[in-house]
Amino acid sequence: MKIAVAGTGYVGLVTGVCMADRGHFVTCVDINEQKVATMNAGKSPIFEPGIEELMVRNMDRLHFTTEYNTAYKDAEVIFIGVGTPEKKDGSANLSYVYEVAVQIAQSIERSCVVVVKSTVPIGTNDKIEQLIRSNLKNDVTVHVVSNPEFLAQGSAVKDTLHASRIVIGVEDSYAAEVLREVYKSYECPLVITNRKSAEMIKYASNDFLALKISFINEIANLCEVIGANIEDVAIGMGYDSRIGNKFLNAGIGYGGSCFPKDTKALHWLASFHDYELKTVKAAIDVNENQKLKLIKKSRKYFDSLKGLDIAVLGLTFKPGTDDLREAPTLVNIPFMLEEGANVKAWDPVGVDNFKKLYPVGVNYCDSIFETLRDTDICFIFTEWDDVKKLNLTYYSDLMRTPIVLDGRNCYELQKARETRIIYDSIGREVIYNM
Ligand code: UDX
After folding, report:
1. How far is the CA of 47 from the centre of ligand 1 (A)?
2. Which numbered atom of ligand 1 lies nearest the CA of 210?
3. How many whole angstroms from 414 Cα to the centroid of ligand 1?
4. 249 pocket-lining for ligand 1 (C-beta < 6 Å)
5. Distance from the CA of 128 to the CA of which of 35, 77, 171, 427 falls in 20 to 30 A?
């Protein structure tokens, strides 16, 4: 089928590339000319495993352009995959989505199906449909479909090609048939429902996962107080298939482009309708506190961070991505600097993005060893493999005082017991072995 995709961020690019891989003819639209040139050369503007291989392999069916008019005018299906960033009040900023809707209306010369992949508040698909219909230049019919994505950064290609489910929100059977055709080569359950339910499935899924993380983080905090071990607790809980064993890793809170934004947006939407979504509010509050958990732990060892040499391992919100959105480091590192600490930081892919935000003040290192050398305390914010595989003796050998605060539970406690370090992680016994 002839497909156009609006936006080449995580959602748009991965959608376009995967659609081309499934045999469709795809044109992706972005406003940034340089980015378009890069993508036409087979290079991905985002760090995402597997994406470039697919781009190169499908180049004959995949094009990138800044000219939305050419891309949309005769497309059978147009995906909208532009961003819906958070506004100051927590609601979603829909201006990019609406802008694309108007551009589509003014460009299309044939009837088509517009598929909204961007995460949008419940009811937005109806508004998009009205907006397109009221701005149409030609006498054509447009069907709007809600088709939320469930991809996670770092596994976006796999999550898209081997989706757990495809959710299709439609108001008419014709649109459902077109979407069945688009996804005919996918072997996963299709959930066909109305548009509002599809929009809600996306928010409810993300908010439930965020809630699960905040719940396990609170249990971890309590484990520390009463002397239980969160990992054993999570294993014991996870065998119950009603609970499941995924997303029970305690840590310093969730970050990224979805959970923080989508929890706040749903809470805002509920309040707008005079309903208080108490569980989601709790997930948000717990997460805000959890992000500063390691700073609170550091108070056990030092009254203040002033004058300390600090090693930071990991800057991104999770491994496998260079994305810093809502990463715990964005609140922790400014706090450290404000208190007068000297911060050395390492990350395998996130340094360039972090440097754009903090060009001065942080000493960026190329290796973990250089980062640890002669420091008073180490903060682990991201569970990169290089960190997890590190022999713990490097902490005792390189640091001035080997105090390791681990926000991602990277090491087995037994390993820490065998090393001369203080190892303080989340929801587990503190190992004092100095
Ligand atoms: C998430 C959803 O997984 C995806 O389905 C949705 O479409 C977009 O949002 P993403 O933000 O890329 O994807 O990452 P994810 O792997 O879900 O992790 C989000 C955050 O939760 C990370 O900061 C991660 O460290 C944290 N997390 C995850 C935990 O703290 N504990 C866990 O058990 C799992």
Report:
1. 16
2. 21
3. 28
4. yes
5. 35
Q: Is the CB of 302 under 6 A from ligand 1?
A: no
Closest CA to 7 of 71, 57, 59, 91: 71
pLDDT surpassing 90 at residue 434: no
Listing DSSP states for 187-216 in one string gives -S-EEEE-HHHHHHHHHHHHHHHHHHHHHH
Instruction: Tell me the C-alpha distance between 186 and 19, whole Å.
Output: 11
Q: Kindly state the helix (H) or strand (E) to which residue 305 belongs, with its residue range.
A: none
Measured from the Cα of 248, ligand 1's closest atom is 33
- Does the beta carbon of 384 lie inside 6 Å of ligand 1? no
pTM above 0.90, yes or no: yes
pLDDT in tens, 230-247: 999 999 999 999 999 999
Query: Is residue 24 within 8 Å of 61, Cβ to Cβ?
Result: yes
Q: Helix or strand or coil: residue 244?
A: coil
377: nearest Cα among 406, 416, 417: 406
Residue 91 pLDDT > 90, yes or no?
Answer: no
Q: Annotated catalytic residue: which of 18, 28, 112, 258? A: 258
- Separation between Cα atoms, residue 421 and residue 375, nearest integer Å: 13
Q: Name the residue with the closest Cα to ligand 1, atom 3.
A: 152
Tell me the domains of the chain and their CATH numbers: 2-193 (3.40.50.720), 202-290 (1.10.1040.10), 293-432 (3.40.50.720)
pLDDT in tens, 209-233: 999 999 999 999 999 999 999 999 9
The percent of residues in the chain predicted with pLDDT above 70, rounded, is 100
Q: Which residue, judged by its Cα, is nearest atom 10 of ligand 1?
A: 152
Q: What is the pLDDT of residues 252-274, one digit of tens each?
A: 999 998 999 999 999 999 999 99
Instruction: Give the integer Cα–Cα distance in Å for 174 and 142.
Output: 11
- Nearest atom of ligand 1 to the alpha carbon of 327: 23
Ligand 1 pocket, residue 215 CB under 6 Å: no
What are 313-363's pLDDT values in tens digits? 999 999 998 999 999 999 999 999 999 999 999 999 999 999 999 999 999
Distance 17 CA to ligand 1 centre (A): 22
Helices marked H in 227-350 — which ranges? Answer: 230-238, 259-272, 278-290, 293-298, 329-338
Residue of the CA atom closest to atom 16 of ligand 1: 152
Say which residue the tokens 């009040």 belong to: 89
If you measure from the C-alpha of residue 256 to the centroid of ligand 1, how many angstroms do you get, rounded to a whole number? 7
